[in-house]
Amino acid sequence: MNFDVEKIRKDFPLLQRTVYNKPLIYLDNAATNQKPRQVLQRMADYYENENSNIHRGTHKLSIQATTAYEQARQTVAQFIHAPAAEQIIFTKGTTESINLVAATFGERFVQNGDEILITHMEHHSNIVPWQLMCGRRGATLRVADIAEDGTLDMDDFKRKLTPKTKLVAFAHVSNTLGTINPAQQLVKLAHDAGARVLIDGAQAVAHLPVDVQALDCDFYCFSAHKIYGPMGNGVLYGKKEILEELPPYQGGGEMISEVTFDKTTFNELPFRFEAGTPNVAGALGLEAALHYIQSVGARAMHQYENDLLLYATEKLSAISGLIIYGNSPEKTGVVTFNLAGIHSYDVGTLLDKFGVAVRTGHMCTQPLTVFYGVPGFIRASFSMYNTRQEVDALADAILRSREMLL
Predict the structure, then answer these.
(1) Residue 108 forms part of a structural domain
(2) What are the pLDDT digits (tens) for 61-94?
(3) Which residues are part of the catalytic machinery?
(4) Which residues 6+ apart lie within 8 Å of 4 measured at CB?
């Protein structure tokens, strides 16, 4: 496998810094990953040379910025194999994308007595918007169970998928457990039952190839900052025939066709859902991130990350008293664990002092803490720039932390 991790690491400025006089070992990539210099330079270049509002000006800067922004949309469409760029809506991130669908799809299609089906492994962002929508529309939120190993209980999913189900929403990859859900199978089951499907791709898009046409999902969303792009920018993909039926999400500039005090008519796709001045630099930064992934080789990157995950799982499993949550045979990205008898925050605090950055707490998946009967988790999440040496350092820091806390 031709994958030069040391060369790649040089592209990420923040990885060169130290914390507490120790080299930084950054293993919090599921929360956000670091940004290559190419992304930072593209965003700086926009502000230094192209900064202008888009779609509204006839001057050169506005035309250049508009062209670049719409090219970024085209790049995103190609990356996830969307049929057309107009089906790509730029948002603030996965959370806003889900809220957009919950608000607009709910208003248009969900009635009293209908049901929304999610899974027990969802991020809060794929729970709360549906709860709010169900409260407004008189619908019921149903939750498909999971097994102890973190896999979806397919029999329970099928039982809870009924003619009342209007929409199914699930994570392509669990942010806490790393479980890769059988997305294509779940989409077909939902469609056969007459339901639409939204896939939360926040944790998948950096670790798996995504083809929205092959998945046949109705909506797919992800955040730029999970795939080496900037914070505050994200994507919602939707099938054209559904997007055209949805009402606007927000009112303001750009999403209109004509405004009078008596009536407003709305713009075509995708602009109808992009009210106000957009995050132009964020879209260009996301495009630069996608180009970067393509330059290093997505397939080689995915294989390297999978090999690293297997190594980390084996290494941490050998530590006495360490409990791993999420042991699906189809998994990517993370090892989530606890040390028996020690609170996750205490371990995370000591790991930080050893220069190891991990995530601790409920991971925005509080129902999973209840399911496993723990107050929180410790999560080490991996990216293409992490190394086996860093995994070894993590294991050593865990052992030293355990000695100090027991």
Answers:
(1) yes
(2) 999 999 999 999 999 999 999 999 999 999 999 9
(3) 364
(4) none
